[in-house]
């Protein structure tokens, strides 16, 4: 059944691949861009995907924001975990519908949202954040993307310990992941996954050593590069610039000794 | 609550990062490797993650297979869609719990399994495969990974048309994706996602042109490179060899004209 | 024997890796930067490598410009052939002291200068350029880098033919390299090298086909990516951005039929 | 003037891009391959580039070995410095005709040969090698490529000091480059270049720190990735496998304090 846009819905106004705007549909409100304004009220009752025209007669498309769109819009502040890395973190951690996940730090909630999106409706994310100034932003972001009910944000230092146990995956994106490894081991199920994202080599080395010393196996570190292709008949070529580095992703699984 | 291994369960016997074995736990059966054999019966009642010793006193770890493990084990035959690509396809398509997805071709079911894993419990995957010799393998693979109930495999040529409508995402990994684009447009919801995976530039150009001519917007093509890091204090360095190319991933979203 | 800086010499004033200035040493002249000015006359009699201080007490280093520095400074206009590509073109073409080289197009003379630098003192470069507006700039650049005597710039369209024969290497960086291949074949010695640099896939395909149809063997196409590492104890990591694409480099060698 | 093949010359017998053979032309001698044998005497008097047929009627091409060919053939033993890296080392070091270069370690002489090739006819390479077992191989390789007269191989430990002074460039490819930095500083001209090639991050960090502490400026570290493109109309795509890592290349220039 086709979905129509309702008052209060989020819409991603698409102008071009590099120009999209995440807006909430409200009555008596316009959204202004350098290509003219759009009466947001006019969107009500339209189907997602609808083409519309701004006051300057420029075409926009009213898209339903996907999880990737929410993530991109949240990244403005910390600029660290890119969708490509989130995609690998989710896939390699085995997180999916029903998973119980511990995550730190919350930051602006980009990775948190992705994890919440994939664990719903039965799973849950426990997200630790020691910097209290981030918690409000993250909460607002999670609420906006409709995922708040799947997440507990905890204003605690995960380096001091993890409250939960029998967890499926622990996902770390913080400055000192190696200080969390022994706590993560305690919190995880046998065979559970640990994933850590770090920008520097030194963080990776310390974390991998901690993993090896704390009973983890299947330890692996990768980096992921994504390059865009400009596609046009007779002129196809890779784009000129690319992101050369976001961070390294380390994976491991908990092994246990049975008695 | 800890999960114990039961008769009939799949276990991933982990020897090293490059040596893992997917086995079904049965009574009166041994699993033989170049590092000795393991009595599978002995696994029953153990927790996942348990370390055990083979007849040659080599340590194995009994892991619960994650979706990534099933995918790796299924890839033996077609060797085309790598987990890194599957991860990006899933994230960029917006597929998640509850999504309705059309996919082609099924192949050995690797991408199919990943899609089924993420859409469960309420979503569904309709997977088209014209080569009947693949259908049995894919069915067996889906059954093994416990995901068969979320998938309909259809022995039909998707280039001839798509039966479903109001679909959230169409995912293509076949030789002539450009022949499917107009059918995909009809099958998708407004704003719905199309993702196509192709190894050659020529396929990409034809597909992107078909997308642009058939009412899709937000068209983007990327390639993804993953490089492993060998981590060891004082000797850390990237691995010597890597996969230089699997394929290009093209994304687009359906725009519609409202009347 | 140490080299001292003389009036009329070029000096590369180094402020930081991203801030260098190519200046000619003249009396009664200052060079102004956002970090203060330097009396160029003061450089006379100093050794290359000398540290000096600007009027704002910022340290500069007076370096002798290397061929790479000249190339970087020349690239401002066409921005196409990067030093990494020039390095591969030179190495893979076999060009060295004494080589006879045909090149097109001259452009601002960056690649021309590199070729001239390596063929001297006995070799020679014949550089074709159809766009007369480039010839003055290229001549000035070659003169400045002291390499003008090793180069003939010819205001001719290489697609119409090559005057020279028994050439060691033909190097192409122009829009339609495939139109030059048969002329290049005639101009080259048996076993001589052809190298072509092109930004788009379509140019590469046409050029490689022309090479295969015109008696060349050992045809190979590569692309080269260079990524910088930020090195600092405990914080080492690749740089955030990189050039994702400049162009593809195709190599081939002329085979002949003996009678 | 066309070059004909003479007795005693080296010829690169080309069968395919992956199958080439470096042979010395001798009378009464055959060269055997899995595609039949070639009478080497038959090559005498032919032009370079000549196509010929083996006893199994397979076509070979008799190419004049370029410096890159000698390098590839020498690399069999140490497998470390690839042509792409040699190309960047040469370009970024500023080494060219007439340069005076110090290098260590010699190894099998691959990088040494490249340096000798570019400095001739007036320049010279002083190559240090502490492992005496390599010296004979390197000497033989240099003699074969006709470059021996431009090189002094010295069976000395460069970590103990460098005999030469007023050198244009010092090129290091050895396990502990940081131990050579202060000696290199003494040996170099003002503004002279230092280039170091190392496979591990740890070597890079130590070397860069030594460069910064010993009066070098313009310090930069890069890695270079080369990917092949399979070119065929309608089927063009990057190759499946590539070398993911050979080593990092660090560059720097000597700054001096004038009194």
Summarize the structure.
4 copies of one chain form a homotetramer. Chain A is of the alpha/beta class and 259 residues long. Chain A has helices at 67-74, 83-93, 110-119, 132-144, 181-187, 201-213; strands at residues 10-16, 19-24, 30-33, 36-39, 50-53, 59-63, 100-104, 124-128, 151-154, 167-172, 188-198, 216-230, 237-238, 241-243, 248-254.
Number of domains of chain A: 2
> Which structural class do you get from the secondary structure elements of chain A?
alpha/beta
- What strand line-up does the widest sheet of chain A have? 9-8-7-10-11-15-12-13
Shape of chain A: globular
* CATH A-level architecture of the largest domain in chain A: 3-Layer(aba) Sandwich
pLDDT averaged residue by residue of chain A? 93
What is the N-to-C succession of helices and strands of chain A?
Answer: EEEEEEHHEHEHEEHEHEEEE
Span between termini of chain A: 55 Å
Low-confidence runs of chain A: none
What CATH calls the topology of the largest domain in chain A is Rossmann fold
Radius of gyration of chain A: 21 Å
Instruction: Give the chain pair forming the largest contact, with residue counts.
Output: A-B, 74 and 74 residues
Share of β-strand residues of chain A: 25-35%
For CATH, the homologous superfamily of the largest domain in chain A is named as: Vaccinia Virus protein VP39
The multimeric state of the shown protein is homotetramer
């Amino acid at each position: 059944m086709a979905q129509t846009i309702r008052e209060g819905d989020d819409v991603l106004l698409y102008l071009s691949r590099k120009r999209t705007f995440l807006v909430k549909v409200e009555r008596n409100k316009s959204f202004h861009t350098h290509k003219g304004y759009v009466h947001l009220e006019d969107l009500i009752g339209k189907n997602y995907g609808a083409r519309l025209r701004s006051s300057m007669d420029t075409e926009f498309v009213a898209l339903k924001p996907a999880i990737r769109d929410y993530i991109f819009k949240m990244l403005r502040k910390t600029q660290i975990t890119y969708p490509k890395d989130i995609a690998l973190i989710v896939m390699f951690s085995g997180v999916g519908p029903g998973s119980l996940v511990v995550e730190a730090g919350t930051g602006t909630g980009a990775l948190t949202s992705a994890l919440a999106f994939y664990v719903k409706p039965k799973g849950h994310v426990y997200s630790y954040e020691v910097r209290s100034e981030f918690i409000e932003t993250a909460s607002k972001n999670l609420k906006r993307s409709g995922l708040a009910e799947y997440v507990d944000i905890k204003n605690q230092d995960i380096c001091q310990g993890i409250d939960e146990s029998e967890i499926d995956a622990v996902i770390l994106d913080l400055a000192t992941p190696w200080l969390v490894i022994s706590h993560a081991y305690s919190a995880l199920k046998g065979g559970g996954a640990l994933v850590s994202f770090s920008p520097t080599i030194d963080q990776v080395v310390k974390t991998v050593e901690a993993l090896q010393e704390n009973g983890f196996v299947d330890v692996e570190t990768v980096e992921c590069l994504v390059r865009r292709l400009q596609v046009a008949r007779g002129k196809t070529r890779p784009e000129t610039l690319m992101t050369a580095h976001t961070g390294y992703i380390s994976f491991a699984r908990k092994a246990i000794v049975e008695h």
